[in-house]
Structures are given as C-alpha cells and as structure tokens.
Amino acid sequence: MSDRLEAKRVLLISAYDTEMPVLYWSKRLQEMFPSAQWTQLGLAPDNFAWRVRGNALRLAAEHTEQLNRSYDLVIASSLVDWATLRGLVPSLAQAPSILYFHENPFAYAEAHRSAGNGDAQMTSLYSALAADACIFNSRHNLSSFMSGIAAMLDKYPEEAPQGVVQSLLAKSHEIPVPLCADVFEGGEPASEQGSLRILWNQRWGFDKGPDRLLAFVKALDHSDLDARLVLTGQRGRQIPASMAELEGQYGHRIAFNRHETDRQMLRARMAKADVVLSTAKNDFQGIEVMEAVAMGCVPLLPDRLSYPEHFPNERRYHSIPDADQEAINAVATLRHWRDNGFPSPPDMQRFHTQALVGEYEAVIDSVLH
Questions:
Q1: Class for domain 9-178+352-368, per CATH?
Q2: Closest Cα partner for 295 from 192, 181, 204, 193?
Q3: 6-64 residue pLDDT tens
Q4: How far is CA 150 from the centre of its chain?
Q5: Which residues pair with residue 229 across a beta bridge?
Q6: Which of 18, 84, 201, 239 is the most exposed place for a label (fewest CB within 10 A)?
C-alpha cells in the first residue's frame, strides 16, 4: 500500500499481546507498510499488574539478540516500559521511536485500578517522554492521558517540573487504529423479519460492562421488544457472575453464544445482526463496535468514552451511573427506533487503512527526519 518504510528496519514491540486491539493494530501497520523489514516482539497477555511494571526486564532478558540489532524505527505499544527498556538496551536509544497509545492508566475503569496504579501512571509518563512521538487512538484517550498527567503532577509532593504536559502535547497525535479491509467488503444483509438481533461482541471483562449488559437484558425482558442477543466476544478463564446469571436466567433472550474465532464466521454474524450494543466502561476507540457498524449494524452506544467523537447523538443512549436506569434508556432508544424507523449505520470509510495511511506516514516522517 505504501513504500514510505521500504527497506527500513522496523522493530514493533508489545508488552501485552491481546487479540484486540494490539495484534489487530500490528497487523494493520504491517499491511500499510508491507515493504518494511519488520521484527515483531511481544509478551503474552498474562499477569497484567506485574506486566505493567516488569515488561522491560522480561523483554530485555528474553529477546536480547533481537533488541540489540540495528533499527531505523521502533514502534511500541504504550504498555511497553519504553524508558526503562532503552536504558537496559542502550542500542535502542539510537533509534527514532513512536509510542502508540491503545489505552492509558489514567482512564481505566474503577475495577482496573489498584494500589499499583500510580506505578503504571508514572511508567506511562516516562515512556511518553522517552519517545520521539506519541500517537493516541482517540481524542478521549489523548485528553484523559494529558489531564491525568496534569492532575498527578499537581499532587507531586515536591515542586513539579514545568511544561511536561505542553512538551507531550507538542509531539502527540490522534490517529485511530485502521479497520480490517474485510469489513468494507459487505456481507449478507440482516433479516427484515423475525426477532431483532442485537450483537454484543466485546470481551467478557468487567471493563466492558457485563453487569450493564445484564441490566439491559432485564429491561429488555420487561419491554414489548422481540429481540435476541448475539454474543461473540472473547471469554476469560473466569466467567463474570453477571454473564453467568444472564446465561442461566435469560437464555430465551440469547440467539448465539460462543466466542467466534473464525474470521469469516464472525463477519457473517456481524452482517446478520441489526444492532451492535455497547455497555462498556472502558473503550478508548471501540474497534469491535466500528467493525460491526462497517458491516451494517446500527450502533446503540452509551454517551461516554470515545463514542461521542465517532458516532452521532441519535445512535447513543443517555448514560448515567445507575445501571438499571441506563438500561431503561437504552431499551427506550430501541423502542423509539422500532416505532419511528431505524437510523442508518454511519459511514466508516474514514477508518479504512487507505484513509489513514497518510496520517501515519506524516508522523513517521516527523521522527525519521
């Protein structure tokens, strides 16, 4: 697609290789710059709290030979402790570097916060300062990071350094993760008869709001809507209690319930759904939602996180702390659509790799010259 990195030696590092969004992002990068000589290093997505602070030690120990090669550019995901890794592997300090923020520890959902969250916040600050450029996948991500840095420095027990946020802003950019090209190829149209199919395609983690999904299904069960859920997201080793209750007591509201790992089948599930629902407490971009919308689903999203910057008002329901009332708001939006006509899915072409490659090239040029 692009030859901007032709024959350039590029090191791509991740400290927590989740399917979404890290591996998804790394594939899109390599699709945009296929002529680069890529070396990809990553660590499995385990032991999150330890990985946040310890990834540089493990990367340096396990990938000594690859890290000590000569590179023209290093691109690291933001969980990488880039400042420490450059200190442990001095040869890396010579390479221009870009830090890509999928998320940031200043905006984690409450259950993700821990006694060690201050360490994660300081680590992300040092990594951002050590990089030549920072890219954030949404305005929500960028603004919450910068406001978080400012608030943390305000609490600094000593005199806080001046100009930290300003220096970070000067080298920061907002560019989303491009969507996989296959979601723009179309698919089977959703059925116009029978039950409304509502896709919930996110990971079964607390930050994606499974408790709010349960509240939604309870509100749905008290409505006159004929609707069924399609659950395709990844499940962890432990099933959240709210999802167990949903499966046990509201099975009649579930049309499909399995982590869909086959890409072709996942696209078919998205294409046959009418609506894609989010109940998330954390979503710094919302790739799963964006893919479903590109495949023809109407988004039904809370009015928070990254959603307001990407989706029109009429596709969002009023979000509030009370989960039950928020669920009633979401169901009321669905009933309004049923009675007055469903809105069309927003155009997602601006998230195509071809639409975004120029923005990535501009940042790459800024650090290579």
A1: alpha beta
A2: 181
A3: 999 999 999 999 999 999 999 999 999 999 999 999 999 988 888 999 999 999 999 99
A4: 23
A5: 198, 254
A6: 239
Q: Per DSSP, what are the bridge partners of residue 46?
A: none
For 322, phi and psi rounded to 5 degrees? -70, 115
Residue 352 per-residue DSSP state:
B
Q: Which helix or strand (DSSP H or E) is residue 146 part of? A: helix 139-154
Task: Give, for 74, the enclosing helix (H) or strand (E).
Answer: strand 73-77
pTM of the entire structure?
Answer: 0.94
Cα 327 from Cα 323, distance rounded (Å): 6
250-286 pLDDT tens trace: 999 999 999 999 999 999 999 999 999 999 999 999 9
- The domains of the chain are located at 9-178+352-368, 181-349
Second-level CATH architecture of 181-349:
3-Layer(aba) Sandwich (3.40)
SS3 155: coil
Contact 25, 102 (CB under 8 A): yes
- Tell me how many helices (H) and strands (E) the chain has: 14, 12
Helix pair 139-154, 117-130: axis angle to 10 deg: 110
Name the token pair of 335: 């009933």
- Alpha-carbon span 125 to 290, nearest angstrom: 29
CA angle at residue 52 from 27 to 351, to 5 degrees?
30
Do domains 9-178+352-368 and 181-349 share one topology? The answer is yes
DSSP state of 193: S
Take residue 343 and report the two structure tokens written for it.
């809105």
Evaluate whether 130 touches 95 at the Cβ level (below 8 Å).
Answer: no
Q: Is the dihedral of CA 145, 147, 148, 149 positive or negative?
A: positive
Q: Whole-angstrom Cα distance, residue 325 to residue 109?
A: 20
